[in-house]
Amino acid sequence: MLDDIINTVNELVCRAVNAVEAGLNAAPATSLGFAAPITTTQDGLEDSSSSDARAEIEIGVHQLETLLETSIDKNFDKLEIYVLRNILTVPQELAPYMRLRHYEVSQAKFECRWAHAYNLL
C-alpha cells in the first residue's frame, strides 16, 4: 500500500519536472535572463547563447528533479517507519493470542503426526 503511494508521487514529480522543462525550453532565452541572441549563422545553426540557455535549463532541471526525489524519499521513509511502528503493529500483550489460520492447520497436522508417532491416539 505505501509503495503504491510512493510510486504515484514519484510519477507525479516526474510529470511536473517534465512540464517545467518544457515550459523553460519554450520560453525565449531573453525572458530567462540570457543575453539576446545576435543572429543565426547562414547554415541555420543557433547562436551560442541559445545553446547555453538550453544546457543550463537541462542542468537546472536535473538538479530540481534530484532535489525533489531526495526530499520525497526521505520524508516517505519517515512515513513508512511511522506507519509500520504505530499503525500496522500488534501490541506485545496481544501477540500470544494471535495466530494466523495457516499456522493453525499446520500445528494441528503436526500434533496429529506427533501423537501417532508416539502411539498416543
Layout of SSEs?
Elements: H1 2-26, H2 48-87, H3 101-117
Question: What is the gist of this entry?
Answer:
This protein is mainly α.
User: Count the strands?
Assistant: 0
Query: How many structural domains can be distinguished in the coordinates?
Result: 2
Note the gap between the termini: 46 Å
Please identify the structural class as seen in this structure: mainly alpha
Biggest sheet character: none
Shape: rod-shaped
What do the pLDDT scores average to? 81
Helix content: 55-70%
What percent strand?
under 5%
Number of helices: 3
List unreliable stretches of 5+ residues: none
User: How large, in whole angstroms, is the Cα Rg?
Assistant: 30 Å
**H/E element string?**
HHH
